[in-house]
């Protein structure tokens, strides 16, 4: 067709709007990883003794492990000793006690990112925890949450204030030895969010964490733990950005969710780490383990993710459906452009009776990127009446990108019903011609077509995020087709 | 308004249009008839700016402006509208959103204010009734699961919304039953205006009973071989394309 490579190239010029660096004085560890580094980290965080032991044990496991190679991604070996494992903005005092004490430069950073750290900000219904490099810098709306009995704080603070609670659940869903990156995270995680919703409480507002990697040559290893007690409900949102740097940066997070009887957790992510430039230089390596355990009967965990950033994404938010009648959901939009690579999907492990899971995955590939869906649906022998429905759609833009689907199904129960549907389509020249013939800009047309393709997933996102996600796709796709 | 001089166009190296000459003035309705493969659809696609076709020779001007120099979307904003023979589906994009985006692109181009969702909804409901479409269809995906008749009515509705200077209707009658044909024709007749031209492309005469053209042209093998008034179409119907020495696979229709 007449859509020329030049047009594609012309349009592929994409600006990453969060690429600025904040000039702020930081305390940063020398690069390198050993037991001393972990001891120092634990000490700075003033952690209870058990935590240091836990970290060291994880580190010893990690040293014995090999980096996984099964994913459909290619990258040069990471030198784990060239990374600094802790970086925090320098402050006169230990930690800011209130928002007023937060460094104004930091507040400006978050303002620039459109994240309100002022409680009277227009995004009133959302409480925010902001994690900057290795530390949480601010948490908003603490008071109304406390009134409801909800705990929402940096995990480092939770370790000091609620050590028993953290100890009880940390590593129960993602054990330190689960995989290479989870082990690394367990050894060196620096901060992240901790959420506890007591029995019968519907969390009065959306909880949100924004992660920002700022310092150079620093990895970010955050750890999030969310516990929803019996009959409780919480919706949690996560956003991430990073400056444009020529070097690759490592982000290896672990997220654990625990839902007890009749509890519901809705976890939404808009991941917009720096994806690297047009030549594939720089960008974040995003190696993340996210897993939720539906421990209680009738519990529900729902993952919604919009992945547009990162040079490499390796991520499989999963559900272990242990409680009878529990429900797992995974809604995903993964967009890759230029030289980005994504290998993402989910695992639905059905153990309880009448457990149900739904997987809707939308992969969009543009430029020379590679986008893979990898999903496991496993039905245990005891999962009488389990049901799964999987729909995997891929959309290709241009003719140099790739889309792959790797579905795995293991069924050990005859009464289970597992359905899998997959489609691959292209943004067709006919669709583009129709839009343009109606006076619509090519770029707007692509974003409209892609948004339509993602509609089933976007409707699962909380309102503010859905709008943001749509805009993000628009920016990310800037110039992907002629 | 539209002036086509010695237009040659090809697709994948095959020449389809071999020297078209045509003048269309504001207020006129022209019909282009011809057998399958004569280049009728190609002409409409070339005028609208489908990049799959390459113009190798000739010129086209719209109100004196070189049309071939303009991008597809600019031509549309300048008033060229093509009602597609086979409108493509855009899954998940609501008709309403699509139409409003299109209308606002035009308005912006003319320096007018964009319409908000509520204003547009009102307008779209009115126009959808004009072509006998249930307003509920505005919420459905663009052409998604539309019947053939709905797709055609949707195309005419878009013409009514966008108010083009030149509306090109590519086989808008094909696949319509007699009732739908009436609805579509009424819609097209509502488009007739002193400052607007209509170019109808059709294989059959029957559409012209409903939308009476001022001029009829017969296209064969990439050239206009005969032009005349309304009576030419009737004569063609009576005598068949063979009368002009043209092969037509569908002659029995």
Helix and strand topology:
The complex is a heterodimer of chains A (482) and B (253).
Chain A: H1 5-12, E1 26-28, H2 35-44, H3 49-64, E2 87-89, H4 104-112, E3 126-132, E4 135-139, H5 142-147, E5 151-154, H6 155-161, H7 163-169, H8 180-188, E6 193-197, E7 206-212, E8 223-228, E9 233-241, E10 248-251, E11 254-259, E12 264-271, E13 283-294, E14 300-307, E15 312-315, E16 318-321, E17 327-336, E18 341-350, E19 356-365, E20 370-379, E21 387-396, E22 402-411, E23 417-426, H9 429-437, H10 442-453, H11 455-458, H12 463-476
Parallel strand pairs in A: 3-7, 6-8, 7-9, 8-11, 9-12, 10-13, 11-13, 12-14, 13-15, 13-16, 14-17, 15-18, 16-18, 17-19, 18-20, 19-21, 20-22, 21-23
Antiparallel strand pairs in A: 1-2, 3-4, 5-6
Helix pairs in contact in A: 2-3, 3-8, 6-7, 9-10
Chain B: E1 2-11, E2 14-24, E3 29-33, H1 40-48, E4 54-62, E5 65-66, H2 72-77, E6 80-83, E7 90-94, H3 95-109, H4 117-130, E8 141-142, H5 148-162, E9 166-170, H6 178-191, E10 197-202, H7 206-210, E11 215-220, E12 223-228, H8 230-239
Parallel strand pairs in B: 3-10, 3-11, 6-9, 9-10
Antiparallel strand pairs in B: 1-2, 1-4, 4-5, 7-8, 11-12
Helix pairs in contact in B: 4-5, 5-6
Shape of chain B: globular
As laid out across the biggest beta sheet of chain B, the strand order is 6-9-10-3-11-12
What radius of gyration of chain A results from the CA coordinates?
22 Å
The largest sheet of chain B, given as strand count, sense and whether it forms a barrel, is:
6 strands, mixed
Instruction: Give unreliable regions of chain A as ranges.
Output: 1-14, 92-96, 119-124
Mean of residue pLDDT of chain B?
91
The pair of chains with the biggest contact is: A-B, 26 and 32 residues
- Structural category of chain A: alpha/beta
Approximately how much helix is present in the residues of chain A? 10-25%
Largest β sheet strand count, sense and barrel closure of chain A: 11 strands, mixed
CA radius of gyration of chain B = 18 Å
State the end-to-end distance of chain B. 34 Å
The backbone outline of chain A, from C-alpha atoms, is: globular
Helix/strand structural class of chain B = alpha/beta
Strand content of chain B: 25-35%
End-to-end CA span of chain A: 11 Å
Could you spell the SSE succession of chain B in H and E letters? Answer: EEEHEEHEEHHEHEHEHEEH
């Amino acid at each position: 067709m007449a859509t020329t490579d030049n047009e594609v190239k012309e349009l592929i010029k994409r600006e990453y709007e969060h690429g600025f660096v904040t000039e702020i004085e930081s305390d940063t560890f020398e690069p390198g990883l050993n037991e001393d580094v972990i001891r120092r980290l634990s000490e700075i965080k003033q952690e209870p003794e058990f935590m240091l032991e836990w970290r060291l044990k994880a580190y010893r496991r990690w040293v014995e492990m090999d980096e996984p190679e099964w994913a459909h991604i290619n990258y040069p070996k990471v030198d784990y000793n060239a990374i600094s494992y802790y970086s925090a903005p320098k402050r006169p005092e230990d930690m800011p006690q209130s928002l007023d004490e937060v460094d104004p430069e930091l507040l400006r950073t978050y303002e620039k990112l459109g994240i309100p750290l002022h409680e009277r900000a227009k995004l009133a219904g959302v409480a925010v925890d902001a994690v900057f490099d290795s530390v949480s810098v601010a948490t908003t709306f603490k008071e109304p949450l406390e009134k409801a009995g909800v705990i929402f704080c940096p995990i480092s603070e939770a370790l000091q204030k609620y050590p028993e609670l953290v100890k009880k659940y940390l590593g129960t869903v993602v054990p330190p030895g689960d995989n290479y990156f989870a082990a690394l995270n367990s050894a060196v995680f620096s901060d992240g969010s901790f959420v506890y919703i007591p029995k019968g409480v519907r969390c009065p507002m959306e909880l949100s964490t924004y992660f920002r990697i700022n310092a150079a040559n620093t990895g970010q290893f955050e750890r999030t733990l969310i516990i929803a007690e019996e009959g409780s409900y919480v919706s949690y949102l996560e956003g991430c950005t990073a400056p444009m740097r020529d070097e690759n940066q490592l982000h290896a997070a672990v997220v654990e969710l625990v839902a007890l009887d009749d509890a519901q957790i809705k976890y939404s992510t808009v991941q917009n780490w720096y994806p690297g430039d047009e030549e594939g230089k720089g960008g974040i390596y995003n190696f993340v383990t996210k897993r939720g355990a539906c421990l209680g009967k009738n519990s529900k965990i729902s993952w919604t993710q919009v992945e547009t950033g990162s040079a490499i994404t390796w991520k499989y938010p999963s559900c272990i459906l242990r409680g009878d009648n529990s429900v797992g959901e995974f809604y995903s939009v993964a967009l890759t452009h230029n030289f980005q690579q994504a290998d993402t999907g989910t695992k639905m492990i059905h153990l309880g009776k009448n457990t149900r899971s739904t997987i809707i995955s939308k992969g969009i590939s543009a430029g020379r990127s590679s986008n893979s869906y990898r999903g496991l649906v496993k039905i245990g022998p005891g999962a009488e009446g389990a049901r799964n429905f999987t729909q995997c759609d891929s959309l290709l833009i241009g003719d140099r990108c790739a889309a792959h689907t790797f579905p795995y199904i293991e069924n050990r129960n005859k009464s289970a019903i597992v359905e899998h549907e997959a489609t691959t389509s292209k943004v067709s020249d006919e669709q583009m011609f129709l839009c343009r013939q109606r006076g619509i800009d090519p770029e707007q047309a692509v974003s409209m077509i892609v948004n339509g393709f993602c509609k089933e997933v976007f409707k699962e996102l909380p309102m503010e995020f859905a709008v943001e996600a749509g805009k993000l796709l628009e920016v990310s796709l800037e110039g992907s087709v002629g | 308004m539209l002036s086509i001089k010695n237009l040659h166009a090809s697709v994948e190296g095959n020449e389809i249009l071999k020297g078209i000459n045509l003048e269309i003035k504001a207020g006129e309705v022209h019909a282009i008839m011809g057998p399958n493969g004569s280049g009728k659809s190609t002409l409409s696609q070339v005028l609208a700016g489908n990049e799959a076709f390459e113009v190798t020779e000739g010129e086209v001007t719209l109100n004196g402006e070189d049309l071939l120099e303009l991008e597809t979307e600019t031509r549309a904003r300048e008033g060229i509208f093509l009602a597609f023979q086979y409108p493509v589906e855009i899954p998940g994009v609501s008709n309403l959103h699509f139409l409003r985006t299109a209308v606002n692109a035009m308005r912006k181009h003319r320096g007018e204010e964009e319409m908000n969702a509520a204003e547009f909804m009102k307008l779209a409901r009115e126009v959808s009734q004009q072509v006998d479409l249930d307003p509920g269809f505005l919420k459905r995906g663009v052409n998604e699961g539309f019947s053939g008749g709905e797709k055609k009515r949707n195309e005419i509705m878009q013409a009514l919304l966008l108010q083009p200077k030149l509306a090109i209707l590519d086989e808008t009658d094909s696949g319509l039953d007699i009732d739908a044909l009436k609805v579509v024709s009424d819609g097209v007749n509502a488009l007739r205006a002193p400052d607007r031209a209509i170019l109808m492309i059709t294989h059959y005469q029957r559409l012209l009973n409903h939308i009476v053209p001022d001029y009829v042209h017969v296209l064969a093998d990439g050239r206009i071989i005969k032009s005349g008034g309304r009576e030419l179409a009737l004569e063609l119907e009576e005598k068949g394309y063979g009368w002009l020495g043209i092969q037509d696979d569908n002659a029995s229709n």
